[in-house]
């Protein structure tokens, strides 16, 4: 469905842009990870950018929630006293990106967003919400990001950001025209990055961080035009050298060096400190390593550096102020350690299952089956950070992750990638409903080889059709026609199959259609709003019309849907 275009850069436009950026980075994440060869070929740039923007989105949504604006797809006027101002939203966006920034490119993106916010929120006034204001913001963003990097290198995201600002400077007109020009300038600069960095030329790819920025600018174009530009190419046609599976580490360059000769650790932390102390910290860290990026201001900073002596980098932060959320990643082995406890790590279990569940009832069911659960309340999907914390809580060497929601696919993939950097072997099974997760969990055997267990669970989930019965919240177009608020909708495999008025009748029709293709077991999960009689009616219907089919019923609690249906 096409995005409704925004006309000016107001709070709602920023919210839309953040959401579109997150979805676009989710789609591009694996491709960006795959072309990550500079400054270190650790294959996580796309994931880091996704996590950075995810944190920005969470901060923006929190401000809107405080104003009770409602769900992200509700379009309401903002700025007339009934919602947050542009200054509040860009400030939240920048702060969220700063505290959630990951990796080299994520840290630079956070500074780009901070630079935008500094122009768009001068003195808390909405003084720059048109085309000229956006041009100024893009220019300041590019300059502030370059200043944050100790030793800027051409052919990176900094080059792409500068090209976007240059192109925007020559654009006339409204925000849509400026955004288009910035995107086109960035896209052209991205295509030229292999000519500027030998590591990219050898690998036959464009800069991964620059690719991520172009993706974010494409989302800005979509915000103002309603249409997303065509995707950019990640590889370079007619590359001189074919990239083999063992080449990426050798092609890595840290400020011009060979990746195997670069520093052993990436150190990232948030730091509470004054400007003078941070200036001294920059000088100290610059002598310890490379890829130094320090972003932020007003007493809060995000520090990123590659070093051989991780302890010295942390100690420098302690001397400057109060470092926290300290993260140290070893490039050689992909091991990550979060400091702060001082306790030896307890022994990990061999294998665990982490599952997202939509209600307290199902959470109890999954827990009884041995899974670590993350509760997804209606309208409040979990962020990837919550999934990563659940993986840590499971404390296992191997983890099977069940998102149980099609909309959580990118979030779960980012969480899995992050957990892998911490030494956990993670397999993501793309379950689209909690009933598919139940089927997967039913065949889970921790004693099996990991790959065999994952295959069995994936097969069980894939063989389970899923349906839902929900109440429409508003008038909308569906695959079954136009529904009105209050209508009862029957969904099969994610699509609206029928519109009705009676919950039991719609549920019976959904069940009949699902069983028309055969089945051996029906799983019914009743939400709090479902009529008490619906489960008994459906069980009797199965016994009468489908003699070889068994039925199990669970109470899901406040799960959003009135009824979940699974057919295996």
Structural account:
The protein has 568 residues and is an alpha+beta fold. It folds into four domains: 229 residues, DhaL domain (Serine Threonine Protein Phosphatase 5, Tetratricopeptide repeat); 67 residues, 2-Layer Sandwich (Alpha-Beta Plaits); 114 residues, Phosphotransferase system, mannose-type IIA component (Rossmann fold, 3-Layer(aba) Sandwich), CATH 3.40.50.510; 103 residues, Hypothetical Protein Tm841, Chain: A,domain 3. A hairpin with a 2-residue loop joins strand 4 and strand 5. It is globular.
CATH class designation of the largest domain: Mainly Alpha
Helical region count?
Answer: 19
Strand order of the largest sheet: 16-15-12-19-17-18
Supply the CATH architecture of the largest domain: Alpha Horseshoe
Q: Indicate the percent of residues in helices.
A: 40-55%
As a whole number of angstroms, the C-alpha radius of gyration is 25 Å
Name of the CATH homologous superfamily of the largest domain:
DhaL domain
Class by SSE composition: alpha+beta
Domain module tally: 4
């Amino acid at each position: 469905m096409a995005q409704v275009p925004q006309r000016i850069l107001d709070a709602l436009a920023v919210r839309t842009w953040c959401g579109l950026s997150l979805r676009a980075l989710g789609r591009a994440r694996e491709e960006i990870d795959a072309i990550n060869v500079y400054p270190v070929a650790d294959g996580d740039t796309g994931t880091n950018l996704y996590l950075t923007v995810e944190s920005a989105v969470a901060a923006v949504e929190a401000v809107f929630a405080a104003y009770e604006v409602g769900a992200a797809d509700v379009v309401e006027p903002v700025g007339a006293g009934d919602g947050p101002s542009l200054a509040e939203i860009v400030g939240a966006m920048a702060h969220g990106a700063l505290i959630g920034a990951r990796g080299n490119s994520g840290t630079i993106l956070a500074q780009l967003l901070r630079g935008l916010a500094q122009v768009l929120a001068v003195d808390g006034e909405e003084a720059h919400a048109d085309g000229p204001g956006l041009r100024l913001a893009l220019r300041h963003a590019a300059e502030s990001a370059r200043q944050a990097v100790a030793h800027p290198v051409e052919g990176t995201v900094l080059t792409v950001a500068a090209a976007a600002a240059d192109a925007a400077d020559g654009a006339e007109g409204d925000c849509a025209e400026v955004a288009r020009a910035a995107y086109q300038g960035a896209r052209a600069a991205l295509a030229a990055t292999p000519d500027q960095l030998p590591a990219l030329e050898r690998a036959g790819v464009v800069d991964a961080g620059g690719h991520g920025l172009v993706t974010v600018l494409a989302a800005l174009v979509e915000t103002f035009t309603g249409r997303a530009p065509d995707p950019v190419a990640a590889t370079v046609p007619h590359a001189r050298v074919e990239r083999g599976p063992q080449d990426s580490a050798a092609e890595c360059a840290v400020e011009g060096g060979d990746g195997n000769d670069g520093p052993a650790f990436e150190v990232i932390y948030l730091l509470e400190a004054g400007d003078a102390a941070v200036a001294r910290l920059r000088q100290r860290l610059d002598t310890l390593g490379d890829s130094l990026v320090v972003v932020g201001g007003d007493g809060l900073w995000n520090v990123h550096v590659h070093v051989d002596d991780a302890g010295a980098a942390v100690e420098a932060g302690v001397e400057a102020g109060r470092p926290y959320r300290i993260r140290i990643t070893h490039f050689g082995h992909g091991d990550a350690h979060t400091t702060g406890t001082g306790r030896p790590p307890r022994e990990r279990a061999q294998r665990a299952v982490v599952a997202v569940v939509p209600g307290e009832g199902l959470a109890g069911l999954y827990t009884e089956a041995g899974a670590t659960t993350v509760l997804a309340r209606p309208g409040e999907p979990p962020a990837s950070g919550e999934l990563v914390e659940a993986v840590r809580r499971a404390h296992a060497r191997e983890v099977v992750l069940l998102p149980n929601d099609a909309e959580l696919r990118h979030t779960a993939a980012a969480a899995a990638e992050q957990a892998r950097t911490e030494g956990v072997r993670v397999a993501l099974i793309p379950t689209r409903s909690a009933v598919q997760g139940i089927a997967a969990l039913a065949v889970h055997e921790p004693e099996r080889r990991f790959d065999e267990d994952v295959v069995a669970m994936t097969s069980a989930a894939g063989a389970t059709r899923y349906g839902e019965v929900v109440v429409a919240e508003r008038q909308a177009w569906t695959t079954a026609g136009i529904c009105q608020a209050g209508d009862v909708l029957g969904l099969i495999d994610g699509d609206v199959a029928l519109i009705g008025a009676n919950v039991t009748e719609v549920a019976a029709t959904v069940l009949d259609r699902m069983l028309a293709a055969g089945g051996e077991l029906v799983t019914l999960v009743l939400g709090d709003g479902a009529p008490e009689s619906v489960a008994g009616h459906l069980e009797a219907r199965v016994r009468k019309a489908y003699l070889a089919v068994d039925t199990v019923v669970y109470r899901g609690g406040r799960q959003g849907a009135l009824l979940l249906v699974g057919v295996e």
